[in-house]
Amino acid sequence: MANLEKYKGVIPAFYACYDEDGNVSPERVRALTEYHIRKGVKGVYVNGSSGECIYQSVEDRKVTLENVMAVAKGRLTVIAHVACNNTKDSVELAKHAERLGVDAIAAIPPIYFRLPEYAIAAYWNAMSQAAPNTDFIIYNIPQLAGVALTQSLFAEMRKNPRVIGVKNSSMPVQDIQMFKAAGGDDYVIFNGPDEQFISGRVIGAEGGIGGTYGVMPELFLKMDELVKAGSLQKPCLSSMQPTR
Fold first, then answer.
1. Is there a catalytic annotation at residue 62?
2. Is residue 123 annotated as a catalytic residue, yes or no?
3. CATH number for the domain harbouring residue 98
4. pTM exceeds cut of 0.85
């Protein structure tokens, strides 16, 4: 049984870090990882949308993840997004992520062509099979991927014992409630849209993965604290310290 507690909380989407020549900067990746550790967030989501994954090479993404892991060393939950727009590269990144010891891998569906659900499931399961000792998280972002995670596809993916949750970035917040109701306590549902963090948490998300968390982690950590305490009427801005 997977340890789901390590996924419950504020998990910033890790930003792409480049040098002046446009190459991935190992030094800046390491510095950003240290920054997240200092801020006290639960973990990081590496090589996702905020990491510009679709525009990077397989090697770029490996360099980023390697340098995150070199610093994290168990101090952060690390989720590695491994999807590429072909199965071969996705499988290679899944194997690489497992060798590095990430907590979970994640993947969007294939983009551009709107594939049938059985093909999407086969694509995700191929990645998961390539990392047999690693948790798997479905990334649902239909407004960009072009296809949505349906209840029938979610049910099919739950047959895979390594699937432990959904990063839900669809805009209807009720999708979180539907996925949570379907999966129950055996699955973690993450709120995706940053502006819906509180409503997503209240409606059933146990954590959040978001692009602006890294800019203002104090705000999201405070909101998460207040949601857990049931103090939804208490303002949280007064207790924030400036991000440095």
1. no
2. no
3. 3.20.20.70
4. yes
